[in-house]
Amino acid sequence: MTPEEIYARLLYRDGMVLVVDKPAGLPVHRGPKGGENFEQNFVHLRFGLPRAPALAHRLDKDTSGCLVLGRHRKALEKLMQLFKQGRIEKTYWAVVRGGPEADEGLIDLPLGRLDATRGWWMKVDPVGLPAQTRWRVLGRGSDPQGAPLSWLELSPLTGRTHQLRVHCAARDFPIHGDPIYGAGGQPDERLQLHARAIHIPLYKNKPAIEVEACAPDHMKALLAACGWAPRMDEIVIEARQARENARLDAKAG
Question: What is the set of active-site residues?
């Protein structure tokens, strides 16, 4: 990834925090087998600091969207504390097979490891760790074959591994393109899960940081089938540009 490509994915910047738009299909950090990862590009995001920013949390390899970085040690410690306390609010978009009958609700199902041989794969487990996900239907539609789909807004109240994917599958509306939990596996299918927005109450005397990531290209067709329109992201881009202009004006002043 060139410096220009990673700059184009920068959604928010201040003295402590960066929020970047992670692409789907790219691991956030180096795995045991090596290979390309998103973190190796952070060296281009120093903006005058001696060290590259560091990950404050993680997203799955196949999940796109808002990823938070701390620009230095103090910032990273504060961000990680906020994540641990559950004070950073994350909002995801997902396209699921079928969908719930109601328009909103709460999934409250504890999760545990599937088994020792499956790495980070998870399952609903009565003796597992508590896990809660709020959901809201944003639209309904169908795929090209006529099978029903739903566009959901998902808000995890806890941060368990694969929580959204397991919770949706457990309620019989698995996320489209998910090969692990029951709604994927075809070569041309990709996980329809996107970290749409994040709310970071970082500063005591300033409003919380609010950032949104536009819909990724690989989700637009199925989102549009459920009622999404490009204008929704045009508004996001306009707001981001206005914020950047205000930052530059304040710096100039």
Answer: 60
